[in-house]
Amino acid sequence: MTETKKTASKGVALIIEDNEDNLVLISALLKRDGYRVIVAMTGLAGVEMALKEKPDLIILDIQLPDINGIEVLRKIRAKETESPIPVIAMTSYAMIGDEERLMNDGCTGYIEKPIDPTRVLGQIDTILEEKR
Ligand code: MN
Questions:
Q1: How many domains does the chain have?
Q2: Which of 23, 56, 64, 122 is exposed most, by the fewest CB atoms within 10 A?
Q3: CA 19 to centroid of ligand 1, rounded, Å
Q4: pTM of the full predicted structure?
Q5: Is residue 4 part of a domain?
């Protein structure tokens, strides 16, 4: 396998998000922070990519066009064979009741939408450090 991209210091981040504006924003922030970014715009594509690419971090939207983020999380946790990939969900205020379910299903942490571009990288680092 040839590696054409420069190796990013923080590894690979998979963003599962169907909203293009959010995708562009989160992608730009994570790239600037040193991640190599891969994306999926449906839940099932995200599950497949997570299991195949084994990213170092997954950013997971909850409202997706096919299966929702909770189902995505469950499918990944049910099938991954190595140590669990950190999954950070992005939840909107209306979906706040899902947060407990997400954590029960093995989510690493969550960040409420709308995300604050000046804070989100710090929020991600805090979640990852707490779980380390
Ligand atoms: Mn969405």
A1: 1
A2: 122
A3: 5
A4: 0.91
A5: no
What is the residue-level pLDDT of the chain in tens, covering all 132 positions? 545 555 568 999 999 999 999 999 999 999 999 999 999 999 999 999 999 999 999 999 999 999 999 999 999 999 998 899 999 999 886 666 788 889 999 999 999 988 999 999 999 999 999 877
| Domain housing 28 | 11-130
CATH number of the domain that 86 lies in? 3.40.50.2300
In a domain, 6, yes or no: no
The closest of 57, 69, 132, 52 to 103, measured between CA atoms, is: 69
Using the mean position of ligand 1's atoms as its centre, give its distance from the Cα of residue 63 in Å.
Answer: 4
d(CA 40, CA 16): 5
Residue 2 CA to ligand 1 center (angstroms) comes to 33
